[in-house]
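User: For my dataset I need records formatted as: sequence, then structure tokens, nothing else. Please produce one.
Assistant:
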Amino acid sequence: MLKEKVSFAGDILPLGQYFFDVPASYDEKVLKKKWKDEVPTNISNYIGELVEGNISSAAAMEDHLQTYADSKEIGKGSLMQPLRWVVSGQAGGPPLFEVLELLGLEEIEKRASIAIDKFLL
């Protein structure tokens, strides 16, 4: 997933540490730009629906995000970067839903809970 960003094998761990561990830090720019009052609730609800429905494939997660966004009358994009941020601590990276699928529902739920508790403003 990181091959487009990696030039040397030694780049893998610094760029993809979040594949192995809960983020130790979070990009502050995302917090300031994208972390709106409703985001924690929407992320929690979306992830809760994934877990409840055992929706675990990248394609199904993406489809469900669109369904969730439509039901709340919000833009899908308003959740994508904050969702990436809570699981990786970064603003960008490999395709989001592939990352979510690889991490798995339990890990996504845990990471979201940690980030939301830390940044609930």
